[in-house]
């Protein structure tokens, strides 16, 4: 297979969209570097993915600490592994009005969603530039397009990811390296549990949540086609298009109403 000697690195790879992306790469013959915090989960997913007759390397790293992103790169260098595709999927949020939420938790989220993503992109991009080949997929969100009351920090971090991705893509326009942003909407993953968001009106209708396998396929196809970004799902495309035509203050109010607790 043409991808036999290629490696894709995926953060947050043991569940949700990250794991669905890992399965797509494995089916296409890519070797994998999968990263998450829990070694037992990594081992279990590795055993599943290796059924596709690929090599899977696992790293238990806590990317809430950007120093562990530097450590991940150093570990791969020590093993002589060159990453052909980088997928910055790991990310979390926290639910609540900003004055009430925990600042240490929010700083951790900024480190995970922004700092570690920037570190990994910087380090692996330098390698890709030296080879003039490579692909990067950054997990943004339709949250990147709107202010997000009840998730102010999360929306802010995703706005950074989208802007950052579009900027470096332009810087690389004369190379063979592509950078793609994936913008899903609310998806049926454990994101809402980790964000303590289960009481939000936005997640009461489980049937309205996107399937992570569908989101992963949209992102994978856009990445392989070298697209700049993809909004996953027709409903999310419509919502984002409408938001772009609506004053930000009104969008913020609409999001406040959509995301507030169900008992308010």
Q: Which short descriptors sum up this protein?
A:
264 residues, alpha/beta, Rossmann fold, 7-stranded parallel β-sheet, 9 helices, globular, oxidoreductase activity
List the helices and strands and how they pair.
Blueprint: E1 7-11, H1 16-27, E2 31-36, H2 39-49, E3 56-60, H3 66-79, E4 85-88, H4 103-131, E5 134-139, H5 152-171, E6 177-183, H6 191-194, H7 212-225, E7 229-231, H8 234-244, H9 248-259
Parallel strand pairs: 1-2, 1-4, 2-3, 4-5, 5-6, 6-7
Helix pairs in contact: 1-7, 3-4, 4-5
Overview of the structural elements:
With 264 residues, the chain is an alpha/beta fold. It has one domain (7-259): Rossmann fold. Helix content is 48%, strand content 14%. The chain has nine helices and seven strands. It has helices at residues 16-27, 39-49, 66-79, 103-131, 152-171, 191-194, 212-225, 234-244, 248-259; strands at residues 7-11, 31-36, 56-60, 85-88, 134-139, 177-183, 229-231. Strands 3-2-1-4-5-6-7 form a seven-stranded parallel β-sheet, with helices on both faces. Helix 2 (39-49) links the parallel strand 2 and strand 3. The radius of gyration is 18 Å and the shape is globular. The chain starts with 6 loop residues before the first strand and ends in a 5-residue tail after the last helix. The model has no long low-confidence stretch (mean pLDDT 95). This is Short-chain dehydrogenase. One of its GO terms (cellular component) is membrane. InterPro entries: NAD(P)-bd_dom_sf, SDR_fam. Pfam families: adh_short.
Characterize the quaternary organization of these chains: single chain
Helix content range of the residues, please?
A: 40-55%
Overall 3D shape: globular
CATH homology superfamily name = NAD(P)-binding Rossmann-like Domain
Ranges where pLDDT stays below 50 over 5 or more residues in a row are none
Mean pLDDT equals 95
At the third CATH level, what is the topology name? Rossmann fold
The secondary structure category is alpha/beta
Strand count, sense and barrel status of the largest sheet are:
7 strands, parallel
Beta-sheet strand percentage?
Answer: 5-15%
Strand order across the largest sheet: 3-2-1-4-5-6-7
């Amino acid at each position: 297979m043409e991808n036999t000697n290629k490696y894709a690195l995926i953060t947050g790879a043991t569940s949700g969209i990250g794991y669905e992306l890992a399965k797509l790469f494995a089916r296409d013959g890519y070797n994998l570097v999968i990263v998450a915090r829990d070694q037992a989960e990594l081992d279990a997913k590795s055993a599943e993915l290796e059924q596709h007759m690929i090599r899977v390397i696992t790293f238990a790293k806590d990317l809430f600490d950007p120093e562990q992103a530097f450590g991940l790169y150093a570990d791969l260098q020590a093993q002589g592994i060159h990453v052909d595709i980088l997928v910055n999927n790991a990310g979390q949020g926290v639910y609540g009005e900003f004055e009430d939420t925990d600042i240490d938790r929010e700083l951790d989220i900024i480190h995970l969603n922004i700092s570690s993503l920037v570190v990994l992109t910087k380090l692996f991009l330098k390698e890709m530039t030296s080879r003039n080949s490579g692909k990067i997929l950054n997990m943004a969100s339709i949250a990147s397009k709107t202010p997000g009351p009840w998730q102010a920090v999360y929306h802010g971090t995703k706005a950074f990811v989208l802007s950052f991705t579009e900027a470096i893509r332009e810087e690389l326009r004369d190379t063979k390296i592509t950078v793609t942003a994936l913008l899903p909407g609310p998806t049926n993953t454990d994101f809402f549990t980790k964000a303590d968001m289960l009481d939000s009106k936005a997640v009461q209708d489980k049937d309205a949540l996107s399937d992570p396998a569908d989101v992963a396929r949209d992102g994978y196809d856009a990445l392989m086609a070298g697209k700049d970004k993809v909004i996953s799902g027709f409903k999310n495309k419509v919502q984002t298009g409408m938001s772009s035509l609506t004053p930000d203050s009104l969008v913020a109010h609409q999001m406040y109403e959509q995301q507030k607790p169900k008992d308010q």
